[in-house]
Amino acid sequence: MNVPLLDLKAQLKTIEREVKAAITEVVDSGQYILGAKVEELEKKVAAYAQAAHGIGVSSGTDALLVSLTALDAGPGDIVITTPYSFFATAGVISRLGATPAFVDIDPDTYNMDPEALRAWFDREASKAAKVKAIIPVHLYGQCADMDPILDVAQGFGVAVIEDAAQAVGAQFPSRAGLKKAGGMGAMGCFSFFPSKNLGAMGDGGMVVTNDASLAEKIARLRNHGAKPKYYYAMIGGNFRLDALQAAILLVKLPHLDGWHAKRQANAAYYDAHLQVDGVRKPAIAYDRKSHIYNQYVISVSERRDELQKFLAERGIGTEIYYPVPFHEQECFQHLGYKTGDFPNSEYAAKHTLALPIYPELTDAMKDFVIQEIGAFYG
Length: 378
Hints:
- By secondary structure, the chain is α/β, with parallel strands linked by helices.
- The protein has helices spanning 8-29, 36-48, 60-70, 88-95, 114-123, 146-156, 212-221, 243-252, 256-273, 304-313, 343-351, 363-377, and strands spanning 53-57, 78-81, 99-102, 131-134, 159-163, 171-174, 177-180, 187-191, 205-209, 279-280, 296-300, 352-355.
- The chain folds into two domains: 8-254, Type I PLP-dependent aspartate aminotransferase-like (Major domain) (Aspartate Aminotransferase, domain 2, 3-Layer(aba) Sandwich); 256-377, Alpha-Beta Complex (Aspartate Aminotransferase, domain 1), CATH 3.90.1150.
- The chain has twelve helices and twelve strands.
- The chain has a seven-stranded mixed β-sheet, with helices on both faces. Strands 10-11-12 form a three-stranded antiparallel β-sheet.
- Helix 3 (60-70) packs across helix 4 (88-95) and helix 5 packs parallel to helix 6 (146-156).
């Protein structure tokens, strides 16, 4: 049996006619960058994230980059995040000349540990005034513990940018009520990379915010800083979203909650039936419906790489998210961190493995994955 990590063709079969009609509409319109489709998507995704404004951009990476640019982050500034995420989270900080500072993750959720964040400010009090932003990552589709993170940020007058690339639709039970990923900080950043729960057929992203002035600035920055056309009071970049991707995403958006529910059901199935010594299943920090399971990531006590090879030989796709924490990457050695500084991130990098979780998985496919993991560990 073949069980890929992700099967986008299976999803397309369920909406193919709608998607092709949307593509044809854009082709016939002659409007290929920004325009009415992008504006419609911006309004709908912002509303979905419980935010007032949405600004479509060219990728999730550029969403992070333009958000930091809107805060005027640059040389001399510090931006705090975790060392355990996709490279873009830290890469955009360095691209602007600011300095990434890392705090460790919670060992169960893999999200930013609020106590580690608070400890950083206690330990680095002399640097607190240099902190431009904090970027918690809602990793794998589950929100970070935002209340204490926002408390720390507010106490030091620091903006929070949510890296919600993997978490569109994830929920957080805040003190002020149920909130959605992306709508809690100064800005929230989404990726529409094809593998995401809401995926385009190419790159795409969005920034959402409740701050009208930030929204206006980001909208200018994504178009080289122009307002009006050919007049520049600031320097931006080419971060515009294509109308074609917006049209495809508009077809997919009404299906998103249903796809989340199927991923949650698949996760519940794994949780109930994957009973193997030494295999730890994903933690549920809040409740099942709050986690959108962009990934279903297990942690194994030993032989992770051998397990991945064993499963691949049997036609089961898996992925390691992520094998090398930022502080151990060659390009960040100048920051002065060393192995052992972030033990939870380092452990996760060596012991975690993502299993297939996409909505179209059958019970037989899940049973095969479970059976083969059990066979490997005997």
